[in-house]
Amino acid sequence: MKLLLLDQDDRLLLIHAKDPLTQAECWYPVGGGIEPGETLQEAAAREAHEETGLVDLPPGLPVWRRDHTYEYDGRAIEVHEKWLMHTVDRFDPVPAQLTETEARTILGFRWWRAQELAEVTETIFPPRLGYLLMDLLTDGAPAEPADISEPKSTSHPHFPASR
């Protein structure tokens, strides 16, 4: 599951991290796995707290879904993501409970405008995030989560933190 944490000015919080094997850097949204017995919203609140220190995450709107395989730390990892959009008050992230891997690989955080994400030359996960976010902010949340998976023939070196 991935979280689009948007502040009152529609800036998106992303995590800056590096792959422990290749040292390649990228930016990606807050998120992680759903533990047994958790609802999607409960998992979102837990991940937001663990990775950013945010408490009392407001309920999110399901906006996207994505199937993707990425390379991380020398391994191929297949994910089936559900994306939620949350509006939060802007805050300074201070992780509350990172995994050992996250603690070694997370370099920092930044709030981004959609246009900045569309124009940036740094690696962003997913690659079209700026354009996807601009569409979402213009059109609003879809009635059913939209599939934002890339074509299977496309290979991207992006890596989200893994649990």
From TrEMBL:
Region named Disordered: 143-163
Q: Which residues form the Nudix hydrolase domain?
A: 1-136
Q: Which family does this protein fall into?
A: Belongs to the Nudix hydrolase family.
Q: What is this protein called?
A: NUDIX domain-containing protein
Keywords associated with the record? Hydrolase, Magnesium
Please tell me whether the keyword Magnesium is annotated for this protein. Answer: yes
Residues in coiled coil: none
Gene3D superfamilies the record matches: Nucleoside Triphosphate Pyrophosphohydrolase
This protein's cofactor list reads: Mg(2+)
Task: Supply the source organism for this entry.
Answer: Kribbella orskensis
